[in-house]
Every structure is written in structure tokens, then in C-alpha cells.
Specification:
about 100 residues; single chain; two-stranded antiparallel ribbon; six-stranded antiparallel beta sheet
């Protein structure tokens, strides 16, 4: 089970965009995530008439290493670590380490 999943609200803890918040759009591979509005770059794209791309300069969000983001805790308004808890029905759930509250997915 991954500690950070698609749709989670995260905060960047290291790098150029330190302190910014966003939600995880997708997970690339084992240890890279794409976060909405984070690590935005401008990419020069060639036109491709078969697909219908006009070409030009487009804005893209590139991936960031998963160790540079932490899950955002709305109750404490800070970044937090993720832990796991097994309930009575043997279901594994994610919790905030500082408060012990369940992470809503």
C-alpha cells in the first residue's frame, strides 16, 4: 500500500516549489508523482497535423520525487507523516502519525 496516492493533498517540502500545496494527479513509476501546479515548465511542441496539435509553447507539470512531498493535514495546517493501522476486520488504513486520525481518500 502506497503512503501517497492519487487525489491526496500534498505539500512540497524540498526544492524550487517548497511550501506550495496541490493534489496528486498521477504516480509515475515507484517514486515519482505529478502534483497539480507544481514543477510547471514550458515545453516547445512541434505541430502534428495528423493528431491536430497546432504546436507552440505549452505549460506542463513535470514529475517530482516522492520524498520531496508530504501529505497535508488540514486539521493541524502542516505537513504530516503517514502511518498504517489494521482495524478489527483486517483492513489496512492510512492514518496521520501526529494525530492518529484516518486519512480520507
Amino acid at each position: 500500500m502506497q503512503k501517497i496516492r492519487k487525489g491526496d493533498d500534498v505539500i512540497v517540502i524540498a526544492g524550487r516549489d517548497k511550501g506550495k500545496r496541490g493534489s496528486v494527479l498521477r504516480i509515475d513509476g515507484i517514486n515519482r508523482v505529478v502534483v497539480q501546479g507544481i514543477n510547471a515548465v514550458k515545453k516547445h511542441q512541434k505541430p502534428n497535423p495528423t493528431i491536430g496539435n497546432a504546436g507552440g509553447i505549452i505549460d506542463l507539470e513535470m514529475s517530482i520525487h516522492i520524498s520531496n512531498v508530504a501529505i497535508y493535514n488540514f486539521y493541524s495546517k502542516k505537513s504530516d507523516r503517514v502511518g498504517f493501522k489494521i482495524d478489527s476486520d483486517n483492513n489496512k488504513t492510512r492514518i496521520f502519525k501526529s494525530t492518529g486520525d484516518l486519512i480520507k481518500t
